[in-house]
Amino acid sequence: MPTAFAFNTAQQHAERQRANMEAHGYYAETFPFNATSNNTISITGTVYLQAIGLAGGDVVTNILMALGGTAGSGFSGIGAKVGIYNKAGTSLLASSGDVSGQLAASGTRTMPLALVAGQPFVVPSTDTYLLAFLGIATTMPTFAKGMVGATNANSANSITYTGAQASQTDLPASLTISAAGTLAYWMAVS
Predict the structure, then answer these.
(1) By mean pLDDT, which of 21-25, 31-35, 81-85, 110-114 is the weakest?
(2) CATH number of the domain that residue 133 is part of
(3) pTM score, whole prediction
(4) Which residues lie below 8 Å from residue 186, measured CB to CB, with a gap of 6+?
(5) What is the extent of the structural domain holding 50?
(6) Rounded to 5 degrees, what are φ and ψ at 160?
(7) H or E segment and range at residue 73
(8) How many domains does the chain have?
């Protein structure tokens, strides 16, 4: 006799996942938080990119990351910023001010995006976008991540699931993604 699990549909699974995310204060994530395996320190001056699916009309006011282990300290220059790029990385659509103050303690950190003309960022169309993090510090924070190498560039579809660009002092207007990332940091939006 089939179990109750045999009758779950993809829609039911998605509804459960959405309810879980909303209960934690966000509505989309790069991959399920429960799939994080450990924490990895970031490298100063490297823009880290994580793909996320967003729907046209979504309002994004914050980017969340889970900080564990080591807090960041000794921030300089821009300190730390988060942002949203189009899926090719050729256009910075929204970014924050300095969020380094959010990185001094472990836990899920909520980093606000700057308003654009007094309004929050509204996703222009349903698509894959890249969430970005950049920090300039003597001690960079560690973030929750998925399995190393679990995600990579999908050249057939021109989508980078994780990526990086080193030697940056600010989030550039356009990225040249120098490497498919091997660090799948968990990120979310609210």
Answers:
(1) 21-25
(2) 2.60.120
(3) 0.86
(4) 29, 30, 31, 33, 35, 36, 50, 65, 66, 143, 144, 145, 146
(5) 4-189
(6) -100, 120
(7) strand 73-86
(8) 1
